[in-house]
Design a protein that fits this description.
By secondary structure, this protein is α/β, with parallel strands linked by helices. It folds into two domains: 2-44 and 143-212 and 307-370, FAD/NAD(P)-binding domain; 84-137 and 215-304, D-Amino Acid Oxidase, Chain A, domain 2 (2-Layer Sandwich). It contains nine helices and 22 strands. It has helices at 13-22, 56-70, 94-104, 115-121, 143-156, 200-207, 273-286, 331-347, 364-370, and strands at residues 2-3, 6-9, 28-31, 48-49, 80-82, 85-89, 111-113, 131-135, 139-141, 160-162, 167-173, 176-181, 186-189, 191-194, 215-224, 237-240, 246-250, 253-257, 262-263, 294-304, 311-314, 321-325. A hairpin with a 5-residue loop joins strand 16 and strand 17 (246-250). The longest helix is centred in the C-terminal third of the chain and has 17 residues, at 331-347.
Length: 371
Amino acid sequence: MSSSDILVIGGGIAGLSAAAALSKHARVAVLEAEEQVGFHSSGRSATMLHYALGDRLVRALTLASRPFFDDPIEDFGELGRRMPVLIHAREDEREALDALETELSLFARLERLDSRAVHELCPLLKDDAVHGIADRNGIRLDPHALLQGNLRQLRNRGGELHTRQRVASIGRSDGVWTVSSDKGESFSAPILVNAAGSWADEVAKLAGVQLLGLAPKRRTIITFDAPSGTELDGLPFAKTVGDELYFAPESGRLFASPMDEVPSDPCDAQPDEYEVALAAYRVEERTIVKVERIHSRWAGLRTFTPDRHPAAGFAPDAEGFFWLAGQGGFGLQTSPAVAAIVESLIAGTPWPAGDVPREELLPDRFLRQAA
C-alpha cells in the first residue's frame, strides 16, 4: 500500500497541474492509466490560447491564466510562441461577428478588419471572407512543455507519478480512500481528486459517487500541404465566426479541424473517415487550398459537463472526493487558473480568480438543478 495526503487520478493537464500546485502543501501522488502523461486529450489538442473558445466563464479562466504563459515560473521553459488569431466572416455572417467582437473585447485587444486586411493577414481565404477581427497576441501553446513542466514541479516538491495504473476499484474506510489498480497495486489518501477526463464519471461510479453526466465528444484534425510558395510563418490561427472550421500552420504544413463534436464513449479516440472528409471539404469551401493529400489525421475527446463549464470542487455526497472534470477542450489554456482554484478549494489559499464565481464551478450545482 502506497499512501499519500492527496491522490490524483488522471495524468492529463488537469490532474498534473492541480497535483503540482497541491504539492506545495501535501504529499501528492498521481495515477495515470497510460504509459505517458497527456496521452489522450491533452496531447492531441490544437493548443491555441485564444478567447473565441467557450463563453464568458471560459474566457475569464483563460485571462486569469495568461500571466503564467507570458512569464512562466521556475521548472517551466518556453511554453509557446506568439501567433495572431483571425476570426473571419462572410457578408451574411457579419451580425454574428459583431456580436462576437463585443464579447471578446472584454478580454482581448482586437482589431476590426475589412476585406483587404483580412486577406493581408491570411491570403489563403477565399474572396467571400470580407470581415474579420484579429487578436495579434494569441499564443500557440506547447502541450508537451506544459505537461513536462508540471511534472517536474510535482517531482521537485516530492510528489509522485505512477503510470500504467488503470483504476480497478475504489473504496473508503476510516476517512481514507483506497484505489486499487488492474496491476494489483493499492494507493491510499484521505483526499481523492478525480481528474480522469472522459473517464471521470466511470471513476465516480467505482467510488459510489453521484455522476455528473459528463459527455465526451470526439474532435478530428488533419494535416496537409499549403499551396506552393505560401509563407507559413506569418499565417494566423484562422477560425470561422461559427464553429465550422479552424486551420493554422504546423511544422511546414497546415492543420485543420471541422470542429466536430461527435458523441463518444470514453476511449482511445480514432479519426472517422466522415469527419476527415468533412475537414477537407470545409477547407476547400472556405479557402483557396486544395487538399490533395492528407499527411496525418488524429482525434481526441473533449469532455463536457451538462452546462459546459468545468467542475471543480468536493462532491457533496462523498467526503474527500474532489471533482476536477469537464474542461471541454480548453483545459490547456485554462490550466494555470484552474490549478490555482483547486489549490484554493483544497489547501485554503486565497481565491485566485476574482472574475470567476466559485459557485459556477462547484459540482453541487448539478445536484441543485436535479432537485
